[in-house]
Amino acid sequence: MEAPPTEDSINKITTAYGGLRALYTPSVVAEAAHLLDALYETAAGHGHPREDRLGRLGGLITAAAEATSGKYGRPAAERTPTEIVALQAELGLAFLDEGLTPAASQVHMCVAVEPLPGGPRWGWDGHVGLAVALYADSGWELMVNQARTRVFTIHAPGTPEGAREVAAIVHSILAGDLEDPFRKTAWQ
C-alpha cells in the first residue's frame, strides 16, 4: 500500500486548484500530491531541496496539478454508450446515498437533483437544482439543471468510486458547505 502524500503537497495542490475554474475530488488532489512528492524527491536527488525558499521549484506544483487533472478532464478514449449509462446509474445511486432527491433533467444526458432546504438555489424561481453530465468525450460536467447554464468540470475518475466523489461534491454545494461555483467571482 502506498503511503499517503505529504500534507505540504496536499496543501500546495489544493491551493493550485483553488483558483481554477473547475472542481477536484479528493482522490485527484491526493494523486496530484503524490506526483508532487515524487517530483520533489527527484529534484532533491539532483541537489534541489524541497524547502527552496527562492521558489525555484514552483513549476513542479503546476506540473503535478496539470498533469493529474488532465487525466480526468477528458477520457483517453471515448466512452461507449454502455459505459456512459453505467456511470450515470452509479452517479444516480451515489446521489441517493448522499440523501439527494432525483429531479427530471433539463439537460441532455444529465443526472439531476433537487436543491436542498436551506442551501443555494438557482433558476428564476429559485427551485432549480444541479445536474451532472458525462459524455463520450468529456469528464464529469456540473451545471444548473436548466437549458442554458455554465458548465464546470469536476475532475474525478470515470469509475463508480469517482461517481461517489462527484455526488459528495454536489451534495456539499447543495448544502452550502462548498462554495457555489456558479456564484464564485474570483475565477482565473
From TrEMBL:
<protein>
    <submittedName>
        <fullName>Uncharacterized protein</fullName>
    </submittedName>
</protein>
